[in-house]
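Troubleshooting: if your tokenizer reports a length mismatch, compare your output against this known-good record of 762 residues.
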Amino acid sequence: MLRSPLGHLHQEPVTMDDYNSLPLPENVAITLEALKVPKAISFAQIIVQSSFAELVDCRQVTANDDLFFRQGDEIVVFDITPQVGQQPINDIRFVERIAVHFDALDHNIPWVYALRADFPKVVHRNALYFEQPQCLCIYENTYDELKVDWRSIKFLEDIRHWLELTAKDVLHQDDQPLEAFLIANMGTIIVPPDYKAEETLFIYYIARKGGRLSLAASRIELKNYEPYPAHVILLKGEPQAQGVIGMTPNNLTDLHQMLLGAGVDLFDVIKKTIHGLPKTAESMAQRLMIFLDLPKLAPRPGVNENDFYVFLTAENADEIGIQMQFLDKDEVNALGNVLFERTDMALGNPLGVAALLPQIQLTPDWALLLSGNIKHFDQRETRILQIGVGALGSQFFMNNARSGFGRWTLTDHDTLLPHNLVRHAGDATYMGNFKSIGLALTANQIFGGDNFADAIVENYLHPERPEELTARLQQASVIVDVSTSIAVARHLADRKDLTAKRISMFLSPSGRDLVILAEDQHRLLPLDALEFQYYQRLVDDPEMKDHLASEKGVRLSTSCRDISARISQDHVAIHAGIASAAFRKMLSMDVPMIGIWRINEANMSVIPSLIEAENEDVWEIEGWTIRVSVQLIDKIAQARLSKLPNETGGILIGGYDLERKKIYLTDTILSPKDSEEYPTAYIRGTDGVEMMLSKYSSKTADHLKYAGEWHSHPQNCSLAKSGDDIKLFEHIHQEMLAIGFPTLMIIAGDDKKYQIYFQPKH
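Known-good structure output:
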């Protein structure tokens, strides 16, 4: 039997008439011992043992004709005494009567209701299909998460805590988003962002499960989905205070009444809409889909949000018009009474409506926020041209696409073939099509057709439309080369017609290591210079001895060139994630960088090595460009000082690009042990030289090799060639001519000064 709790101080005691009842279907009162739902039993027992709560009633639903309260569900009613101050901000009483609805199947979170009729309309309530009694939102987490640590004593304490914080008006934290006005109970619909009333929307049926619909609204017609017969009405209400609306309407009358408070006469809008529809059987047999934009005011100033809801009518336009008595039944019958079969919803209420939860189509800005990359927001519109969308390139691009970062042009002339699917981000949808086109379309579909990316099908080195490719390159702020082609990177490095910063990334042949070379904004060190500094890094780091080693590839066809590398998709995925994150970071850095990330096969950890590139001296001699590492000159200067007053010398290590007439000097083999060093002469020995040269060749796949000689002059001497130097230079020249390389010699002097002597092959 229900008892009357104590009244609030300074108020009359609460009586039976002051309580609301739950809209239960057929039910019976039961004792605590008769409860069958495990959580209801445990909760009622805790109440009996509690010092601040008292059990009032237990009920069990015996009918199964309701969508919310089902047969076997149990309700526990109790009085609770929260700790409330003398002057609470919100009218929470010293004793509140609460009912908890336990789902017999334990699929839904126990619903908590404040039974007092004049319970305040505060925040953190659930808007159900009935407004009274009010349903309290105790938890933010899903029930599946809460079940892991569900304890009845904690549940009771959390209800009490909710009442205490609400009394003080501190339940809603400043950093919390505003709570939704309504609960969408019949499914979801995906809608495009920034939809305007004058636009046409196409509605499509996606799926249905458990009585819930899944629909999509699109600005463009979609061929792969079934059209859903509905006319769209867009409404915008006046701002509403958070917590004002306490019920989710399930019929047009309730929705109309709710919207009157937001300054919208829904009945008038519906009447005008239906009158404006074509009077055809197909048009009049469609439902109405009401898009409702409802601005929300926070309880504290300075915080406002918009709630967006979609309501779908249970009746078709003609039935609505007849029941609202502004369409003539004879006129409708004259259409042939051709109605769509009603198989997706049957609420049973006159002029029923169901709330659908709208999911706004993903936008690049939203993706940037959701992916935790908001720090790159200022760079989100960066124009990026990517060359190569193979295994690494495709996954690198899609990582950036899903992050909403950049505006991209992809160029690649390869097609997507079956074996590519092992490591490529594309899928079989675009099999046989060009990789660049397939990826651009995939990215744009993520954003509902947004022009996030486009594609140009070209071989960068041999384009069929060079003017178009050049125009795209010139529009870009950043060019990222993921072609894994040395020729492409070096060609890019030479182009003076482009202003974009250039970044190159590739995997080692085994796929174990990722390499990224990033120019500075002013391009003081272009990609080709960074490439040879990277080779030098391989020599300096003993852990990189097998960096450029590779396994034998897999033959795919009859051609001797149809071979695919054996690289794990796991490795590609790991490195693509690193590459996309490092890429965004490097865009904001104005220093040239060389990065190498190595996977530790033992535990799958990643070992990073990120270094700032060294400055270089650049010499232009007889049409050739010679780049000299400052680190090399420092090494030579230190060796000279250590051997004074004698002369010393050694071998120059470097690389060549004979097509572009470039030499890159990176290191030296210092004077061998069997060398002869005198105050006015130097004769280089050969001890250990062959082994050292082999090390440079094997570690760098022969990119670094013998590149010439150097020797020092005594203090206070010029850097001009002596008679012996002239003979030495001629001797070197003859040997280099025999192997097809130009001749280079450096003479080092005081204060790190040096002179290059150079003779082309001819």
